[in-house]
Design brief:
Elements lengths: L14 H11 L4 E4 L6 H13 L5 E4 L3 H15 L3 E5 L1 H17 L4 E7 L15 H4 L16 E3 L6 H13 L6 E6 H5 L4 H5 L13 H12 L4 E5 L6 H14 L2 E3 L15 E3 L5 H4 L2 E5 L17 E6 L16 E4 L2 H15 L5 H23 L7 H11 L5 E6 L15 E3 L9 H11 L4 E7 H6 L2 H11 L4 E6 L4 H10 L4 H4 L14 H7 L3 E5 L5 H13 L4 E6 L4
Parallel strand pairs: 1-2, 1-3, 3-4, 4-6, 5-6, 7-8, 7-10, 8-9, 10-11, 11-12, 13-14, 13-15, 15-16, 16-18, 17-18
Length: 570
């Protein structure tokens, strides 16, 4: 190809240009990128498209790969469509692996791409030009993400790119959704694509599964006949109509609804049957348990259902077949997108009716009310130290007007922080790839700029998020999220695990549990201000409401904000 931009073949006709055009044809309007020396064909094709008015996605340059993956993750959660990320060769992909693992666990349809160092030393216009071309060579670059991707391939010839993009996105969006990976060596990315292939319309559609009719009927019969029904929901319905129907069914029948390690709302937190996050004592006494899209619905070491209880599991992959060890029983498995499958089940339950035993209904409602009142009373105790509960209650009181979404990474207490809508609560994926909440909240704010979006995280999670990279982009693009850092000075989850496994051990008796401290404490508000973001520090309980209100006012005027709260306890 000529180096003169006014003559010779256009880079829009190269695989790089066709890739960008194909993404736009699939409705992808933003790609999150962390560029490198493998990107020149993409950069040139992007610039030419902009100069000529050819539709291609906007490119959001991210200063860290974890930020790019988190933005894509959060944007899907509120936007709903497939996302695309392009990283730099093997080193960029390595930095993005945690984000890919999180996306796989959370069923995010994501096309993850990374360049591959040129395979030729000379003889091709895109051959190696710098020493890292040799240093970044790998025999199997895709191995880093193969276990957490539904499909992966490496581009061999430029002409393949339209079909590979179509296939990748169809697979990513099919039930259950998840990430796919495409490697992009520089030489085929530079090569031209025949015109007939470049402009051919996509003809690969994703598929959606629905439950087997016989299994659906059996599940409906079991739930209609249940005298002590229990629902354990880690991911509830996203469709507002299905959400409302499910809440109505649970109230009408007297079912207990437990949100053990909930990633999404299943019913409003003040629903009369919502017993909170602890399935005890209900699990041991329930006769039918409906498990909604839950990887680990209870802790087998601590509690188990009754031997004669019947278990119905519902979700895109109710057996979570990607995970080698998961032995939770499924007497009936309903495979399908949660909204559609649950709607079908509710249709049958509306016909069959049913209802809990009156004693069970009274017990559920009484215990649900008692737990709510006790949690709120503890959080509102003005004589208690400033802790996560106090932060959760203050946020709950603040976010009562208008739509809002909270992204919690072991930062807020679900239930103390009241949530009432399907997209109002997002918890970090069960993979535990920390540093998720801040970039995911930013992605959600990009999807819905008029919604209040709050990320609540511990100090460790804030550091894992690469806050300088996140806040720099938030300031540049005016991504007006509110980040609340609940700083307990270390890894609280690790400390709790040590106490659980070794309650009388040496570590617990030490002045400080080893390997869990992050001191000396940093000034996160100053980090925010250094990036051009509003930052404020809170050290006393009486300072908290005003600080949060001031920060939220900033975000509502279009400015991101950080509130750094020093708390006690884990």
């Amino acid at each position: 190809m000529s180096t003169d931009p006014t003559v010779g073949p256009s880079m829009l006709d190269s695989a790089a240009g066709v890739l960008l055009r194909r993404l736009a044809a699939h409705g992808i309007d933003r790609i999150f990128v962390n560029a490198g020396t493998d990107f020149p064909p993409l950069v040139e094709a992007f610039a030419e498209a902009r100069a000529k008015g050819v539709p291609v996605p906007d490119a959001v340059a991210c200063a860290h790969e974890h930020l790019a993956l988190g933005l894509a993750h959060g944007r899907f959660l509120l936007g709903g469509g497939p996302q695309a990320v392009i990283l730099h060769t093997n080193v960029g992909l390595a930095n993005g692996v945690i984000g890919c693992i999180n996306a796989a666990c959370d069923q995010v349809p994501l096309l993850l791409m990374s360049g591959r160092t040129p395979v030729t030393e000379y003889g091709h216009p895109a051959s190696r030009t710098v020493p890292i071309g040799w240093g970044q060579e790998m025999r199997d670059q895709a191995a880093m993400v193969r276990e957490c991707c539904k499909w992966e391939f490496e581009l061999r010839y430029g002409a393949q790119i339209p079909g590979l993009v179509d296939r990748a996105l169809a697979v990513a969006r099919s039930t259950p959704a998840g990430p796919v990976y495409l490697g992009l060596p520089r030489e085929p990315l530079y090569d031209p694509v025949p015109a007939d292939l470049a402009v051919a319309p996509p003809r690969l559609s994703p598929f959606r599964t629905v439950p087997d009719p016989g299994a659906l009927e059996e599940a409906a019969r079991l739930l209609a006949g249940a005298r002590r029904p229990l629902v354990i929901a880690q991911r509830g319905p996203r469709d507002p109509e299905v959400f409302a129907r499910f809440a109505t069914w649970a109230e009408r029948t007297g079912a207990a609804v437990c949100s053990y390690w909930a990633l999404r709302c299943a019913v409003p937190t003040d629903h009369p049957g919502h017993v909170g996050a602890d399935p005890l004592p209900f699990l041991a006494h329930a006769d039918v348990v409906l498990v909604l899209d839950s990887l680990a619905p209870w802790q087998p070491r601590r509690e188990r259902p009754a031997a004669d209880a019947r278990i119905v599991q519902l979700g895109p992959d109710p057996l979570f077949s990607r995970f080698p060890v998961r032995m939770f029983p499924a007497d009936v498995a309903l495979a399908g997108e949660t909204d559609a499958a649950l709607a079908l089940l509710l249709d049958r339950l509306d016909v069959l009716g049913g209802g809990a035993d009156p004693d069970w209904r009274r017990t559920v409602r009484g215990e649900a009310a008692r737990r709510r009142e006790a949690a709120r009373a503890r959080a509102a105790d003005a004589t208690a130290p400033l802790d996560k509960a106090a932060v959760s209650l203050a946020l709950s009181d603040l976010l009562q007007e208008g739509p809002s979404s909270v992204f919690s990474e072991l930062g807020a207490l679900y239930g103390v922080l009241q949530r009432h809508a399907p997209d109002s609560w997002f918890q970090e994926p069960w993979t535990g790839g920390l540093g998720w909440s801040l970039p995911a909240a930013m992605g959600a704010k990009l999807a819905d700029p008029h919604r209040d979006v709050v990320a609540v995280m511990g100090d460790g999670s804030f550091l894992f998020a690469n806050p300088a990279a996140c806040l720099r982009l938030a300031a540049a693009l005016r991504v007006a999220v509110l980040a609340v850092v609940v700083d307990n000075g270390g890894w609280g989850a690790v400390r709790r695990s040590v106490r659980e496994l070794h309650p009388d051990g040496f570590a617990v008796r030490a002045n400080e549990i080893p390997m869990t401290g992050l001191g000396p404490r940093q000034n996160f508000a100053a980090i925010a201000r250094s990036s051009g973001v509003f930052g404020i520090t809170v050290e006393r309980r009486d300072e908290l409401p005003a600080a949060l209100a001031a920060a939220l006012a900033r975000t509502r005027s279009g400015e991101p904000a950080v509130v750094h709260v020093f708390v006690s306890g884990d």
